[in-house]
Design brief:
alpha+beta; 7 strands; globular; about 40% helix; 3 helices; two-stranded antiparallel ribbon
Amino acid sequence: MTENEISNRVIGIAIEVHNALGPGLLENTYKECLYYKLVQAGFKVEKEKSIPLIFEEVKLDCGYRIDLLVEDKLVLELKSVEELSELHFAQTLTYLRLGNFKLGLLLNFNSVLLKEGIRRVVNKL
């Protein structure tokens, strides 16, 4: 599956999770439920995937962690905040660049409708 095909299916599943739980819960709650539903749907998913920073040919573990990595291709950064900021977008783009991934989804579960809390983040797609 391509990144776009994966993202379309993931968005549908994320909307299911949001419809079941609604807004207002902690980010970790949505992460655990989304992880469960993605695995149940047959996706390979890694939680809290560590991503190193390579600086002058030295690999440094600086504590960067991707919330969910789907099929080794799609980065999911989950939030439960009043409003997404440019800093959240920049964080997701940084994860894409550090891991050499092409596509990420920034999902804010603290939205009345999840589709209003989704931002696609692209890195050389």
